[in-house]
Amino acid sequence: MRLDDTTLRDGHQTPGVTFTVEEKIEIARMLDEAGVHQIEAGIPVSSPEDEEAVKRISKEVSASVMGWSRAHPRDVEAVARTGADAIAISMPTSPLHLKYKLGIGWREALSRIREAVRLAKNLGLYVSVSAEDGSRTPYRLLRQYAEVILEAGADRLRLADTIGILTPDITKKLVRRIIRDVGIEVEIHAHNDLGLAVANTLAALEGGASWASVTVNGLGERAGNAALEAVVTALKVIYGKDVGFKLDRLYRLSRLVEKVSGIPVGYFTPIVGENVFRHSSGIHVDGLLKHPYTYQPISPEEVGRKTEFVFDKYSGKALINWKLKAMGLKLPETYVEELRMLLVQKAYRLKRALREEELEAEIKGFLALKGLKI
């Protein structure tokens, strides 16, 4: 199982997001250091900036570097000029895309992709070929497409669920069927329009796909792509698979992409969201203080995070006693319950959890009220 990170290409296509060349290089370095196998760095034919970014990243990292291309000689040659070792050639395969987007027939599509693959191989590139809108392509056509690109020399098929309509069960069966019938390596490129990108990516890997296309923070057009952080963590937690990625780099990587993209990470975003390792419920905190895995699927330190306890309306005495201990204090049980109720009322008035400094201030105020020394 290998990771093709397309933050710098598909993530860069997010409306309103523009990475500078230097920002792309910074992200690429961090992806490389973290252990991503391949970095899809941009679309060289699209602009001098993208061409420069792909060219410089190719010299900066040890991971494979890929440039994106349409099935057009000019695009393919632009990728080759950058020094990238790999190319992603994209061609729509669904009847809808061919008719309304390109205005060409199936034979013409096969002819174009065949020639593009041959050119790329002649230029010494590793070739991944995308079946754009592959999830809405009749299977007989998808199989024929895979056979044609394999015969032309392609190294793998990128199965693109372009509008995110696959389900995990269908994805797994489809990937398994293509591999069985054609004998080609498959990469899954899942979009998140219906919230299934990560689940479909994992299902594709179960079905035999050897590559997963991901982006940091799930960045991408519309609802985004399969999130790198969720995919690699799920592979470890659920499947026990280590793909060579340094999980403790995830949070730093997420914060960097959040900063340079200007797209905020959601509060509940798996692994990297603000709330993921933050706990307040009395029952949960009590369990976590006894064993860290009672309410966490992975140690937060493994993914560059830490457990955080905050006091709000459902917090209990376990959290208060934990905080008192940290302050070097111990109170009678009746005082602890009285303090708990005081803090609960404060949380209700504020309509939020108490910040660390507020919690300490309230405890000190309570102790002073009771005439107790700190």
Question: What does it look like?
Answer:
- The chain has an 8-stranded parallel beta barrel with strand order 1-2-3-4-5-6-7-8, surrounded by 8 helices. A two-stranded parallel sheet has the order 9-10.
- The protein starts with a strand and ends in a 5-residue tail after the last helix.
- It is built from 15 helices and 10 strands.
- By secondary structure, it is α/β, with parallel strands linked by helices.
- The protein has 2 domains: 2-261, Aldolase class I (TIM Barrel, Alpha-Beta Barrel), CATH 3.20.20.70; 278-369, Recoverin, domain 1.
- It is 48% helix and 13% strand.
- The longest helix is centred in the C-terminal third of the chain and has 18 residues, at 333-350.
- Strand 3, helix 4 (73-81) and strand 4 (86-92) form a beta-alpha-beta unit.
- The chain has helices spanning 7-11, 21-34, 48-60, 73-81, 95-102, 106-122, 139-152, 168-182, 197-206, 228-237, 250-261, 282-290, 317-326, 333-350, 356-369; strands at residues 2-5, 38-42, 64-70, 86-92, 126-132, 156-161, 185-190, 211-214, 278-279, 308-309.
Can you give keywords for this protein?
374 residues; alpha/beta; TIM Barrel; Recoverin, domain 1; two-stranded parallel ribbon; 10 strands; 48% helix; 13% strand; elongated
